[in-house]
Amino acid sequence: MEIRPILSSLLRNKTGALLIAMQVALTLAIVANAMYIVRDRMQLSARPSGVADEANTIAIITSSLVKDEDRFEAQKRDERVLRAVPGVVSASWSNQSPLGRSGWNMGLLTTREPDNSDINGAFYMAPHPVVSTYGLKLVEGRDFTEQDVVEWDDEATNTFGHTAIVTQALGKRLYPDSSAVGKLMYVGTGEDAVELRIVGVVERLQTPWAQASENAESSFLTATRLHSGYSRYIVRTEPGQAERVLRDAEAALLKAEPRRLIHGKRTILEDRASRYRDDKAVAWMLVTVTALLLLVTASGIIGMATLWVNQRRKQIGVRRALGARRLDILRYFLVENVLITTGGIVVGLVLALALNQLLVSQLELEKMPLGYVAIGSAVLWVLGLVAVYGPAWRAAGIAPAIATRSA
């Protein structure tokens, strides 16, 4: 088929063609970036936390109202109480939990001297056996032992421990060229820096904030009990027992010490749902916007094609009278749509990359792979052909006799 007559016709009716092309361009720019953000949000919310069984691992947050209580002995008592609850596999005190939305964070160095390091790690304090309680996967070194545990009163000393377990991500940042096991890391600088020897590496343990960046898995644990009336207990239950254990554990803790407040009790899975609720809402909103935008674009193509068919009825009848087949008329409108759509896609490619650059500069996103633009382009090509097919088929059905009718 000759392309020149189609281009000549489009130039004579360029306003409509330009409107459709710009609509396609804007749709491609928005749809490609929306698909990328949806994929990014969904992958973000599906990242493993490192906890072996989130649905059956509970965080119970309490505070004591007893001012003269021995905090360390109270923590040990509460751990014994929780371990005695039927259905509990393991229990340990901890200052924070992954996806819990609040916690401690520390800057880390590999020497006592300042080196402008930007390495930070979520600081988990937890005595033995927190690694087994969380169900973390130990990939190098060893777990903590009872001899590693330090009871820390932060008002009396800054030494909160001597040993540490780090995540793989943090270990590679500290010692990118060798294993971190057996190496030292420091919190602070100079003589007052706290020296920690890395005794183990776990595959992963997300921070309480689960950032969108690589810092989400930059965490370390020390075998520490903190002198505090505010406590968080991590409890791993037998499968399917979490709901019952939640009730029984609260009752057991209140029975052991009625003068306490229970501030929260929830599974890590519930913390995950809370952390990623906004991300999933954004993803579904973008899916809805994408669907509506594609629907509007298809409606625009159908409307414009229908208008052109009505305006060219006599022209089409003349072509039929001169021997044009129905297939020729159908192909004419399909090719015309492909040309308009292609023009819009070329402009849309530039707009999509510009919009992505803006999003990268404003949000914690990496640059969008060109594959998303390719998929968006293919979707719009197919959408354009499907949308124009109905009006084109009706145009192909115009009888040659229409050419003899007066306007």
Overview of this structure, please?
The protein is an alpha+beta fold and 407 residues long. The protein folds into 2 domains: 4-46 and 277-404, no CATH class; 54-275, no CATH class. Helices cover 48% and strands 18% of the residues. It contains 11 helices and 13 strands. It has helices spanning 4-12, 14-45, 71-83, 130-134, 168-174, 242-256, 268-275, 277-311, 313-321, 326-362, 370-396; strands spanning 57-64, 88-94, 105-107, 120-125, 138-141, 150-152, 163-167, 184-187, 194-202, 219-222, 224-226, 230-237, 260-267. The strands form 3 sheets. Strands 3, 4, 5, 7, 8, 9 and 10 form a 7-stranded mixed beta sheet that branches. Strands 2-12-1-13 form a 4-stranded antiparallel beta sheet. Strands 6-11 form a two-stranded parallel sheet. A hairpin with a 6-residue loop joins strand 8 and strand 9 (194-202). The longest helix has 37 residues, at 326-362. The radius of gyration is 32 Å and the shape is elongated. It starts with a helix and ends in an 11-residue tail after the last helix.
What are the salient characteristics of this protein?
single chain; 407 residues; alpha+beta; 2 domains; 7-stranded mixed beta sheet; 48% helix
Give a quick summary of the entry.
By secondary structure, the protein is an alpha+beta fold. Helices cover 48% and strands 18% of the residues.
Question: Structural class, please?
Answer: alpha+beta
Order of helices and strands: HHEHEEEHEEEHEEEEEHEHHHHH
Number of helices: 11
3D shape: elongated
Uncertain regions: pLDDT < 50 for 5+ in a row?
none
Number of strands: 13
Strand content of the residues, in percent? Answer: 15-25%
Describe the main β-sheet briefly: 7 strands, mixed
Q: Tell me which oligomeric state these chains represent.
A: single chain
The number of domains is 2
